[in-house]
Specification:
219 residues; alpha/beta; TIM Barrel; two-stranded antiparallel ribbon
Length: 219
């Protein structure tokens, strides 16, 4: 089975259509963040979501850290999936599910070392998927994604091996390294942002090359 492909940092209806036409399985829409590329207004996210139809998933990336804040953010934009890019500090995943029973919950784990495996196992039974990225939630100004940096894929592979939910791999991926990333980590899906952009805009040729390389990785 080929990897699922999530194209993140979508910033317009035109970019959404381009990603859909090139074969993306999911689109990521970035809400307010402390740093990094891609944040757009909730009103724009909501308007883009209207053209994303099943089976394509719409992911809201939220930096909210409370169950009530996360649920409220999703309700403003109407995505079918939420990607929680920071630690849940107040409330529970169950509270989010009770508020929005249809919602798929994806928790980001920033792979900083082997301790990340333990962090992932703590949330494994409570979420629908895990996404591995290369941010640093403990920095003075938090980096919660879109860094363009890879992390230790051997740790990611061990995390994938232990997880019982689907795991997406993100962080510094591009057409040149995606086959190796998939070979080493064996993720359920991959997530791309900066690696398919030129001057901040989604680049059709880079996206085509990335999707082709990812789709052919298992051949």
């Amino acid at each position: 089975m080929s990897c699922k492909i999530k194209t993140c940092c979508i910033s317009s209806v035109e970019e959404a259509r381009m990603a859909i036409n090139q074969g993306a399985d999911a689109l990521g829409l970035v809400g307010k963040m402390p740093s990094g590329p891609g944040p757009i207004a909730d009103e724009l996210i909501a308007s883009i979501v209207k053209i994303i139809n099943p089976p394509i998933a719409s992911f809201l990336l939220t930096s909210e850290q409370t169950a009530t804040g996360i649920a409220a953010h999703v309700k403003r934009v109407n995505t079918n999936t939420v990607q929680i890019v920071d630690e849940l500090t107040e409330g529970t995943y169950a509270e989010i599910r009770n508020a929005l029973p249809y919602l798929k919950i994806v928790q980001v784990i920033h792979v900083t070392g082997e301790e990340s495996i333990g962090q992932a196992m703590k949330v494994n039974d409570h979420v629908d998927a895990i996404l591995l990225d290369s941010g640093n939630p403990n920095a003075a100004v938090k980096t919660l994604g879109g860094t363009g940096n890879t992390h230790n894929w051997e740790i990611s592979y061990e995390l994938v091996r232990q997880a019982t939910v689907p795991v997406f791999l993100a962080g510094g991926l591009n057409a040149a390294n995606i086959k190796e990333a998939i070979r080493v980590v064996r993720p359920f899906g991959v997530d791309i942002c900066s690696g398919v952009r030129t001057n901040g805009k989604l680049d059709k040729q880079k996206l085509q090359a990335f999707i082709y390389a990812a789709r052919s990785a298992g051949e």
